[in-house]
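re the bet — no i am not wrong, look at it urself. input seq straight from the record:
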Amino acid sequence: LTFATNGPPGRTVRSIVPDGKSFQLRQHLSLLPLPDARYQPRTFDPRTGFYPSTFKDYFQPIQTDLQQRWTSRHRLLRTDPADATSPIANPIVFYIDPGIPEPVRTATYQGAKWWEEAFAQAGLPGGFRVEWLPAGADPMDARYNVVQWENRNERGWSIGGSLGDPRTGEIIKAMARMDSHRARTDYNLYAAFFGAAAAASDTAFVLARVRQVTAHEIGHTIGLAHNYTASSYDRGSVMDYPAPRIRMVNGRPDASAAYDRGPGAFDVWAIRWGYGIWPAAVEADSLQAIMAEGLRRGYRFLSDNDARPESASDPRTNLWDDGATAEEFLRHQMDVRRWAIARFGEWNIRDGEPVSVLQERFVPLYFWHRFAITSLAKAIGGVEYAFAMKGDGQQASRAVPAARQREALTQLLSTLEPAELAIPDTVQILLAPRPSSYGIGIESFRSRTTPIFDQLGAARTLAQMTIDAILQSERAARLALGVPNQPDRLTLHEVIDELLTATWRGATRTADEAALRRVTQRALVDRMLAIAADADAAQEVRDIVELKLASMATDAKTRATASPDVPMRAHWSAIAADITRWRERRELPTPSPALRAPPGDPFGDDGWPSTLRE
């Protein structure tokens, strides 16, 4: 292959070899015979947490679904199929890349062995085994299920994938690819709370996360999907995305139980259901009994489509949460955040580091509760639900009680208080411009006062998170349209009135507090104008927002006239003009938007153009 340095017009192509030179790419091919007929597919059940392997069968009777669904899983056999206690004949073996550096290598090995525990607890001892990849073996060789290492210089996802037989759902080859940058991200979190010296000497926090994520990615490769509701029943599954558990104990943060130490109860139950081996005559009854047991124990499963969309409605189902309820989670996050911000300083970086490095250390503290905000916002207009099947006794859906919705709204509005948005002066003076070769990367705050830190820009970003979550379009529609059989329900106009009370009518004592109030006021106006102009939003939502905007415009005009302060007068005049422009001419104003936050997913790429990462 030859790479040229001359690309299409207007585009530069960087060559990795000199012009006219060539190089060789190494490629590994594995050819395997089709699996024999000894594997018996297992019908997929959406309550179990397994991935489906799907296909359409056009020979199905008209009363049944064309879409057929098998459970994705490895083949597991007993030496004597008729004896439910006989040894496993073909254990699932995973091989760990010995090139992983220590101490991460040992932690990876230990995390992989969680599945040995899970299979043993599920009544399948010896069904899963962990070994080191033999010398000379290729990780791409289809004969090896591998946990391999991938070096990265920035955030990225670890990935658990597999190759399977589409005819049966049988997994043939599995690969868990571990992201090397993950440990650095965890180090940054720990140093932000406990100081750089503690983070350098105590690796327990980082290595605990390595064990957890190794088990998580292997879980995908043995057929298990994300279970984002497992945190609501005491860390029920390693297939959840866990926030590190840092909570106030005796007046200071404690991270001794930051991550779990083995498989969750749901994981063991799922393995029993997915990999249990019984004689054909009793298999159906055995599966049904296991399912009934799981439902009695409250093992719920909801996944990506239920947690990731901004419109998600079930407050139990979230990425990066930790707590029985979203209310509890936000309370803990706010408590430790206040403690850490009040004490933030030079102790959070190493001796000899530029003080400006504190910017990227402060980011995870300032936005520490961002996922708790997202979680709790789902309670507003919220509906809890389950993948109920006919006859299983589960209630398919239920609205979050109105009283709980109001409590959630009150708790969310408290995050908009100036005291929660403010950054102490003792911190701001440390967030200085960065020296040469320490460029602004994705871990840093954006700024409109470059090269100086932009406190109001950071506050606006955070305030917009809360307001946008509360007034998310589908959530607003659930409030405006209501749900059946919910007396005294929370309404959209009540929510907007509460937002106005919290932001427009809140008292301020100082000029700094007044400036932070203006940040929240502008964030609310911009969100409401965006909803009013959104043709995809429910008409009932747009009508209520338009009504509220009319009174807000009148209020803003009055405030602009009465304000003796120039910044305040300019602020209210601009708001009044923006609302009037929309209401009279249907022209959407273009105010300066909230700055984009540094990446949220603790271990995920944020999708920024590469030029912003350099």
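see?? The first strand starts at residue 52 and ends at 56. told u. also Residues 1-15, 603-614 have pLDDT under 50 and may be disordered. so pay up
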